[in-house]
Specification:
Chain B: InterPro entries: AAA+_ATPase (IPR003593), ABC_AA/LPS_Transport (IPR051120), ABC_transporter-like_ATP-bd (IPR003439), P-loop_NTPase (IPR027417). Chain B: Keywords: ATP-binding, Nucleotide-binding, Transport. Chain B: GO terms for molecular function: ATP binding. Chain B: Pfam families: ABC_tran. Chain B: This is ABC transporter ATP-binding protein. The complex is a heterodimer of chains A (about 325) and B (about 250). Chain A has a single domain, classed as ABC transporter involved in vitamin B12 uptake, BtuC (Orthogonal Bundle). Chain A is about 75% helix and about 0% strand. Chain A contains 13 helices and two strands. In chain A, strands 1-2 form a two-stranded antiparallel ribbon. In chain A, helix 4 runs antiparallel to helix 9, helix 10 packs across helix 11 and helix 11 packs antiparallel against helix 12. The longest helix of chain A is centred in the middle third of the chain and has 27 residues. The mean pLDDT of chain A is about 90. Chain B is α/β, with parallel strands linked by helices. Chain B has one domain: P-loop containing nucleotide triphosphate hydrolases (Rossmann fold), CATH 3.40.50.300. Helices cover about 35% and strands about 25% of the residues of chain B. Chain B is built from nine helices and ten strands. Chain B has a six-stranded mixed sheet, sandwiched between helices. The longest helix of chain B has 17 residues. Chain B is globular, with a radius of gyration of 18 Å. The chains are: A mainly alpha (about 325), B alpha/beta (about 250). At the A-B interface, helix 7, helix 8 and helix 13 of A face helix 2 and helix 3 of B.
């Protein structure tokens, strides 16, 4: 699946990230855990962007994953993070498998608005369902790790290491997918659907696959966020949450997997420090930052790597 | 004459009150080279679009090797071996020449493209390079599409369409947008490559020199109908064709 060089890169990336569990302060670990959780969701959007679509409703899966884990944990008393992630991923896979083929027939703003509509339906439903907390949401117990029940700093480190491993694994899988035969077809469909259909490939299938991958990643991101926060509420599915994911995806661009997580961390840092230094105008700082990125790097952070690759190729 | 590979019978296509094609009946034998001539709006591209599934006829039938393909999707028809190129080359502008060709070889090489198998494997790239060399465009492999000349774009478009198991190739104005001195070399290259593989060729063309030189049979379209179906010399001297299509008077 991955060559030796890629496996070494994956292992190296994890080793570097894992070092953070020792050297980073608690606040930074929490910030990075949240950034990486959102980065997983954004990686799903980037997958769709490679096919030319932008989902404005990825909050649907972020929220569905978070609520699935919470309800599963609260109903069955299961707190194992591995199991919760698997359950959330399966539920989101099923939801994505249901909506994916329907949405794959739409393009541009219609796809964006339909995906947004689905997330807002979930938001509205959860807000009205008082049996699962309504607008107040629900609490979820701290996670355990295959029987290990850490507390305090150890819990924070355990969660950080788990998320790092999950991000590296998901990043490797998506990188493999982006560079696979089906990934290339999705990329070609972004440019010219007519050509792809007249070569004999199904554009709809490519779009559905991208959507389903995005659903699973969204569910995993939501599960991690719920466990890190210890709480879920319908805001997970609100349009501003989805907008934030799109923000990161635009910042990252569709050309690089690592750029997604770098962008997610940058966004969290910019937001945290803007909030600290300009508490009343931090959204303005965030907007100016995004504008600057769009002007300077219309292809996102990933285009920096890709430009170099193309230049080397041309030479 | 060998058995018809393409059998079009009484096909009609209407767009509202406009009839773009009517009473189209033609049998194309395997391995033949047909050209379609006619003024703009005569029904040539409508014919190509109906055969390749882009348009569904209102009535009539289209059969490929005895199988009814009327109204099948372009994807299904392509998978059967009926491939096409376009009047305006349909390429992926953000990809390089090599990557465009890789898309074609990937799709044609596998009925079910893999989620894991790398698209850029050494084997796949060798195959791409071989095809690009065959069409004389290997030197352009690392260039993006907007950097290419019209001729190279056309060749790449045709090379992509030919990447699979092609039985019939429909070329929609293969020399339009190509420099005058490139037209014949391009046609030589394309027709030779297709003939070498026994592919049946149907091409739309406005240049009568190209029609005369490369086609074995000509279909002349006028007002959505076929007004002549014969050898090039016969068709081009037909009074109706001269009056309505070529504009040449005796």
């Amino acid at each position: 699946m991955l060559g030796m060089n890629h496996l070494l890169a994956v292992a190296g990336t994890f080793a570097v990230m894992a070092a953070g569990a020792v050297i980073l302060p608690d606040w930074a670990m929490f910030l990075i855990v949240m950034a990486l959780a959102k980065g997983l969701v954004c990686l799903g959007i980037v997958g769709m962007m490679r096919g030319g679509l932008v989902s404005f409703g990825q909050g649907l899966y972020y929220c569905a994953g978070a609520y699935t884990a919470t309800l599963f944990a609260n109903s069955f008393g299961i707190t194992d993070i591995f199991l919760l992630c698997i359950v959330s991923a399966v539920v989101c896979l099923a939801i994505g498998g249901l909506f994916g083929p329907l949405l794959a027939g739409y393009r541009g703003i219609f796809f964006a608005m339909l995906s947004l509509a689905l997330s807002m339906v979930l938001y509205g439903s959860l807000s009205k369902l008082s049996v699962i907390g309504g607008t107040d949401g629900l609490n979820i117990a701290a996670p355990t790790f295959l029987g290990w029940e850490p507390e305090g700093r150890a819990l924070q480190s355990g969660l950080y290491l788990f998320v790092s491993a999950l991000v590296v694994a998901a990043g490797a899988v998506m990188w493999r997918y982006f560079h696979s035969e089906q990934g290339l077809i999705a990329l070609a469909a972004r440019d010219n659907e007519l050509r792809v259909e007249y070569l004999g490939a199904s554009v709809r299938k490519a779009m559905t696959l991208n959507y389903v991958f995005g659903a699973v990643l969204g569910g995993l991101g939501g599960t991690i966020a719920a466990l890190a926060l210890g709480h879920v509420d319908p805001e997970f599915a609100f349009w501003t949450t989805s907008g934030e994911f799109v923000f990161v995806a635009i910042l990252a661009g569709y050309l690089s997997v690592p750029a997604v997580f770098v962008a997610a961390i940058i966004l969290e840092l910019v937001r945290s420090f803007s909030n600290l230094y300009f508490p009343n105008t931090w959204q303005l700082a965030l907007g100016v930052f995004l504008l600057a990125v769009i002007v300077a790097l219309p292809g996102g952070l990933g285009s920096l790597v890709d430009r170099r690759r193309k230049r080397e190729g041309a030479q | 004459m060998s058995q018809a590979i393409l059998d079009v019978r009484d096909v009609q296509k209407r767009f509202g009150a406009v009839t773009a094609a009517q009473d189209i009946t033609v049998q194309v034998p395997a391995g033949a080279v047909y050209s379609l001539i006619g003024t703009n709006g005569a029904g040539k591209t409508t014919f190509v679009n109906m055969v390749t599934g882009y348009l569904k006829p209102n009535s009539g039938s289209i059969s490929f090797l005895g199988r009814d393909i009327t109204g099948l999707s372009p994807r299904k028809i392509t998978q059967l071996g009926i491939h096409r190129s376009f009047q305006i080359a349909q390429l992926c502008n953000d990809l390089t020449v090599e990557e465009n060709m890789l898309v074609a070889t990937t799709i044609h090489g596998s009925r079910s493209p893999s989620l894991l198998r790398p698209a850029h494997s050494a084997e796949a790239r060798d195959k791409v390079l071989e095809t690009l060399e065959r069409f004389g465009i290997a030197d352009h492999r690392n260039r993006l599409i907007p950097e290419l000349s019209g001729g190279v774009k056309k060749l790449l478009d045709i090379a992509m369409a030919m990447a699979g198991d092609t039985r019939i190739m429909l070329l929609d104005e293969p020399t339009s947008g190509v420099a005058a001195d490139e037209k014949f070399p391009i046609m030589d290259l394309v027709i030779d490559a297709l003939k070498a593989e026994g592919v049946t060729i149907i091409f739309v063309e406005h240049d009568m020199d190209i029609v005369t030189r490369y086609s074995e049979r000509v279909l002349a379209f006028y007002d959505g109908r076929i007004i002549a179906n014969d050898a090039p010399d016969e068709v081009l001297t037909d009074p109706d064709v001269q009056k309505y299509v070529t504009g040449v008077t005796a």
